[in-house]
Amino acid sequence: MLLIQTYDAVTVPRSPVTSPPGSDVTLSCSFSCKAGADLTRVVVTWQRPPADHVVHSFYYGRDQLDRQNEAYRNRTQLCGEDEGWYTCAVTNQVENTRGDVRLIVAAAYSEPHVHIDIMEGRDQYALTLYSRGYPSATVQWLNETGCDITDRSKTSQSLDSRGMVELRSQMPEQRDENAFYTFILNNTKLDQVISRSFSVTKNTGSERAEEEGVVCPAILCIELSTRLCLQAMKPLLL
C-alpha cells in the first residue's frame, strides 16, 4: 500500500522563547494539511522530553484535559520549573511530524534603586541598592581602586508573590568618610550585566555649630548620573 504524506512540517516558535515567572506564555504549534487529509483523526500533543509528560493533548476535535500531566492541571501562571524543551507532535494513522521549542523563564533586572540608610548609632551609613528580575543574580562590589570588597556587603534575594526575585544589596561605610563604589549585577541567564558607580561624599560645609541641645544637618551626597542628597539629623556634641 502506498502511503501519501498529507501534512507538512510542524511550525513552532524560534527558540528560545523567554518569559518572566508569573506571566502567561503561548507556545504555538501550526501545520498545513494537504487535500484529502482527515482532520478528525489528527492528534496534536505537547510533551516535555525526555519523559514525554503530556502538557496538552487535542484529538477527536476537542481538548483532552484528562490526559494532561498533573503538574500542568489548573495552571494559570508560569514558574521556574516550566523551563526546558517542549515538543509539539502532530500524528494521524500514517505519519508523525513534530517540532521542538525551548522555553526560558527569565526576566531582566530593573535599574537599581539607590538609597542611603543611616545605621543605628549614626556613626555609619549604608548604601543600599534594590532591583527586581529573575532568576537569582550574582552581585559584586568594587572600591575606588577596583579591588573586590563584596565580602563587606550584605545581599539578600527573595521571591515575591509572582515568583520574581527581589534583590537587596547593602554596603556599610563610616559616616565621616567619603567613598567610591562600583556595583555590578550579573543575570547570567540573559547575559545581562548592570554596572553602576557611586561617589558618596559628606558635605561638611553644610554643618554649622549651634548652642547645646540644637541639632545640625549632616548631608551625604551620592553622585551617579545625577546628584542625590540625603539630609540626616545628628546631635551637636560640645
From TrEMBL:
Write down the InterPro entries for this protein, in alphabetical order: Ig-like_dom, Ig-like_dom_sf, Ig-like_fold, Ig_sub, IgSF_BTN/MOG
Q: Which PROSITE patterns match?
A: IG_LIKE (PS50835)
* Residues annotated as domain Ig-like: 8-104
Question: Which BP terms in the Gene Ontology apply to this protein?
Answer: regulation of cytokine production; T cell receptor signaling pathway
Q: Name one GO molecular function term.
A: signaling receptor binding
Q: Which Gene3D superfamilies does the annotation name?
A: Immunoglobulins (2.60.40.10)
Q: Which GO terms describe its cellular component?
A: external side of plasma membrane
Please tell me where this protein is predominantly located: membrane
- Localization per Swiss-Prot or TrEMBL: Membrane
Which keywords does this chain's UniProt record carry? Immunoglobulin domain, Membrane
Name of protein: CD276 antigen-like
Organism expressing this protein natively: Acipenser oxyrinchus oxyrinchus
State which gene encodes it: VTCN1
